[in-house]
Amino acid sequence: MSDFPTLETPRLQLREIVTADAPALLAIHSNKQAMQWFGMDPITEIAQAQALVDTFAESRTQPNSGIRWGIQDKAHDELLGNCGLFKWNRQWKSCSLGFALGQPAWGKGIMSEALQAMLVWSFEQMQLHRIEATVHPQNQACLKLLERLGFVQEGRLRQAGFWLGEHQDLLQLSLLRAEFEPSPISAF
């Protein structure tokens, strides 16, 4: 992954996250309601948002690299959220999935559209066989989204996460390449 892959959908552009996105990342990742499920404490300062930009950029150069896209509304040029893959095990052809969406974009099908594009790209370009996701059991919106995309629940990881001062159970889900059926929206 030398050049950053930009992906397009009818409404969205998935693009590299840059320094100018730090204020939008702060707005998304400082929201306590959204971050209760994300796996990290909410951030509170612009320097923490800049550190996220740096972390996302550096993840592409790590041995078990990853990639994180900014989700931008093409009509308004605003960053709505982010999504990506991490813990890429090339030998096993597997990755983990992560995403966050700003509260103003909730309930509009934005993340479904973005993830469809990302999944098509990852199965084709990264030649993945399996994509994993871990989700807090009470995050019903996320669970429903992943199940609509074809992810299957595999089990509960007891107290596998720690954020907001508590150990958190997580549900393990996965999607296999043979199970993935892109919806018409991903045929762009």
UniProtKB/TrEMBL annotation:
Keywords: Transferase. GO terms for molecular function: protein-N-terminal-alanine acetyltransferase activity. The keyword Lipoprotein does not apply. Gene3D superfamilies: 3.40.630.30. The keyword Amino-acid biosynthesis does not apply. One of its GO terms (cellular component) is cytoplasm. PROSITE patterns: GNAT. Residues 12-176 form the N-acetyltransferase domain. InterPro entries: Acyl_CoA_acyltransferase, GNAT_dom, N-acetyltransferase. This is GNAT family N-acetyltransferase.
